[in-house]
Design a protein that fits this description.
Strand content of chain B: 15-25%
Number of helices of chain A: 3
Number of strands of chain A: 0
Distance between the termini of chain A: 13 Å
Largest interface: A-B, 28 and 37 residues
Strand content of chain A: under 5%
Distance between the termini of chain B: 63 Å
Structural class of chain B: alpha/beta
Order of helices and strands of chain A: HHH
Number of helices of chain B: 17
Radius of gyration of chain B: 23 Å
Shape of chain A: globular
Radius of gyration of chain A: 12 Å
Oligomer: heterodimer
Largest sheet of chain A: none
Shape of chain B: globular
Number of strands of chain B: 27
């Protein structure tokens, strides 16, 4: 199991999903699927920056880069060795 | 050839009777928006014409003809009537952009009930205050959103019916809940549409002000007269157009021009129920051969950020007319669209209260990048001197945008708040709350808000509402909420916070407070930055001076500080 992906997935479930929502996996579309909108993306980005002590530049924090757990994990790995 | 033609000719010869005649409406007769958006189009021989092309985020696609809209809206209407809901009661639509949202809107209007659309990303507190204020009888929602309703239903004695449109039977229905499947219900060929008249209430949209709780802007069925004609003349909708309005019907653009305008004109429109991505949007335009595109500055700036290269991957040659609404469209965005699409975005200016576009750059007329354009014929707009609310006699002066009331889609009141409604008028003018100047050609240029309301991504957020919610967080002692500049959303929410004893400022606490507001109110209201301070600037009488904090954020002069507590 990929720890980074699990942490991201669990955070998304805890913070952005309602109790009766369908389950998500690493490829579930988060932005295009309407689970995380562009405003909420700011708090998800902030979580990652706090958790891994990194700074994700705004020009890389795109809806495409945040559209699934897999894509977010790829983005985080660019800035920190997890 | 545009529908609009020559501005001076249109102004000279204008009467709202033009719209009444085109719609076949005579004053005093029955007028029901639901009928005009479905049955009437079918009676014009367009029953088999595509009304709605809907695509979900997974790529799932559904197509509805005007006859489908007629039948399914009848199905909605019969279901509502069978529940015992009467004309004038409020029915909330709390859904993503699924077909049931668009067709349910038409169906509710057919019953004579009042539609109350609410943005599905609202948190439980935002939802609660709006349902409580409207004393809403029923709410249509989806499984994914019903838990928010369950959390507040015990505090809402008027809410008798919670209707789930995609119930799958996996979990039992709870108190007051009922399942309704539009597509699996028996189609209703005939429904006796309620005989609403011009002043019958139709739509209740909530909007935020500087103080107090959100206000319900009440519109009437006669608003159709404005919405039909502005959709035709400003958006230049023709019979063969494929139209895409990117706004969510939780907000007024999504109903005035995402439902009423195009459907009353019998135009084909498409809906993409998906979060934003430049690639998905361009693909959607290409696939559906969109000709008229009505979007928002925030989306346009996000597309600019995605770059020009991505545009080359798509054939966007179908685009004929582009328009924008929600906040001022900056000149760079207009010039960018000329460069990449070969045509400008036309800025349009209006509000929840106005119900229709009131000032705009018209198709076929020169666009002045950065200007909101000129008043729509039949709308008298001026720049008022703030001190006496008299129009400035000469151009170039900065003042308040005032509108002479009386056009068909002007709000009729704020729900249960006549006092706030009356406060919107001075000296015979409706005050928009926006400051602007008019140039010598009659074009109007936005300068800023006249109050503390935050316009983020085209949506208004009340600093008072956010401050009130912040105080419910266990760590927050006091707060002040202002806007700060943002390259994409024009402005975003920023909060200044003092902490209660025992709490220490940290990045994790900041994130916790952000998420608290996001879930309680909405993602729009979530402060994108929280600054922890030891104290807030206050007057000697203890009132927090937001304007000082605002000025600092925007690099403006702080101004008079003589009443500041610590001066």
């Amino acid at each position: 199991m990929d720890e980074l992906k699990e942490i991201i997935k669990n955070y998304v479930i805890k913070e952005y999903l309602e109790p009766d929502s369908d389950p998500i996996d690493y490829d579930t579309p988060l932005i295009s699927g309407g689970i995380v909108d562009s405003f909420s993306m700011v708090s998800l980005k902030r979580f990652l920056e706090n958790k891994y002590n990194i700074q994700i530049p705004d020009d890389q924090a795109t809806p495409e880069a945040f559209d699934s757990v897999n894509k977010i994990a790829d983005l985080v790995r660019r800035f920190v060795k997890v | 050839m545009t529908h609009f033609g020559n501005y001076e000719e249109r102004v000279k010869n204008f009467s709202w009777a033009i719209s009444e005649q085109e719609l076949g409406y005579k004053p005093g007769q029955v007028i029901n928006i639901g009928w005009y958006c479905s049955d009437r189009i079918c009676q014009q021989g367009k029953a088999d014409k595509v009304a709605l092309i809907w695509e979900g985020f997974t790529g799932e696609k559904k197509i509805f003809t005007y006859n489908d809209i007629r039948l399914y809206s009848n199905t909605f209407a019969k279901f509502i009537t069978d529940l015992g809901i009467k004309a004038g009661e409020r029915i909330c639509l709390f859904m993503d952009r699924v077909p049931e949202l668009y067709i349910g809107f038409v169906g509710i209007l057919k019953t004579g009930a009042i539609v109350q659309p609410l943005f599905s990303a609202f948190g439980e507190e935002s939802l609660f205050v709006r349902l409580e204020n409207a004393e809403t009888t029923a709410i249509f929602t989806q499984k994914k959103h019903v838990s928010k309703v369950r959390k507040i239903r015990d505090k809402l004695p008027h809410l008798k019916h919670i209707i789930i449109v995609d119930y799958d039977g996996k979990a039992p229905l709870q108190e007051r809940e009922v399942a309704f499947s539009m597509e699996n219900s028996e189609k209703v060929e005939h429904y006796d549409i309620y005989p609403t008249t011009a002043e019958s209430p139709s739509v209740l949209h909530y909007t935020s002000g500087t103080t107090g709780m959100p206000k319900g802007v009440q519109h009437v069925h006669y608003s159709l007269i404005s919405q039909y004609l502005t959709a035709k003349w400003v958006l230049d909708l023709h019979d063969d157009d494929i139209y895409w309005c990117t706004a969510d019907p939780g907000w007024v653009t999504g109903t005035s021009y995402g439902i009423i305008g195009p459907f009353s004109l019998g135009v084909t429109q498409c809906v993409l129920d998906s979060g934003f991505s430049a690639e998905a949007w361009y693909r959607f335009i290409e696939k559906n051969r969109v000709t008229v595109w009505y979007s928002a500055p925030t989306a346009i700036r996000s597309l600019m950020k995605a770059g020009d290269e991505i545009i080359k991957k798509f054939d966007l040659s179908s685009l004929r007319h582009l328009a924008s609404v929600g906040e001022p469209l900056n000149p760079e965005a207009v010039n960018w669209s000329i460069r990449v699409f070969g045509k400008p975005f036309h800025d349009t200016y209006w509000q929840t209260e106005t119900g229709c576009i009131v000032i705009t750059n018209f198709p076929g007329m020169p666009v002045k990048p950065g200007s909101m354009g000129r008043p729509f014929p039949g709308i008298i707009a001026t720049i008022l001197n703030p001190s006496n609310h008299e129009p400035y006699p000469e151009p170039g002066r900065i003042g308040l945008i005032g509108l002479k009331p009386g056009w068909p889609s002007m709000m009729r009141t704020y729900w249960n708040n006549e006092e706030a409604y009356k406060n919107k008028f001075r000296n015979g003018w409706y005050l928009t709350g926006d400051r602007a100047r008019m140039d010598k050609d009659g074009y109007i240029w936005f300068v800023g808000r006249d109050d503390d309301v935050i316009n983020t991504g085209g949506h208004l957020v009340s600093p008072f509402e956010v401050e009130s919610a912040l105080l419910e967080h266990p760590a927050v002692a006091e707060s002040a909420v202002v806007s700060k500049p943002d390259p994409i959303n024009m402005e975003v929410v920023k909060a200044f916070v003092t902490l209660k004893p025992g709490f220490t400022a940290s990045k994790d606490l900041e994130l916790d407070i952000m998420n608290f507001i996001r879930k309680k109110l909405s993602p729009l209201a979530m402060p994108q930055e929280i600054e922890f301070v030891d104290s807030l600037p206050k007057t000697r009488s203890g009132k927090i001076m937001r304007r000082i904090l605002h000025a600092k954020e925007w690099g403006e002069e702080i101004g008079d500080t003589s009443t500041l507590e610590n001066e």
